[in-house]
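Format notes (please read before filing issues)

Several people have asked whether sequences and structure tokens are stored in separate files. They are not. Every record keeps both together, in the order shown below: the sequence lines, then the token lines. Line labels are part of the format and must not be stripped during preprocessing.
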Amino acid sequence: MTETNGASGRRKGAGDKIENNPLALVAGGVALGVVIGALLPRLAKEKELLAPVGKRIAEGASAAATAARDAGKAEIDALLPQRDVAKDQLGKIIGTAFTAAKDAATAKTDA
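Then the structure lines:
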């Protein structure tokens, strides 16, 4: 009798877990389906029908990646001139400070 109660308790516990977390059951089912699908051999008809779809998906993904790369480069290029301007301004400030220090040193030496 204890085995029957133990099995019944485990079954009830599993049922409660599934009720509380149905997404885990769905994820497990999807994972099992992926594994079974990977183990089954591909048929020639399947390759014939799905090859064009795969090519279109790959081309679309490649085009999206290229567009993203180009947009990123354009954004960086838009920021670089601002960086160059800031670099030039910093160079002018340092040059002016250097000239002022040199002039002050010269004035002190002359005095």
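For reference, the curators noted about this record: The chain has a mean pLDDT of 81. The two ends are 113 Å apart (CA to CA).
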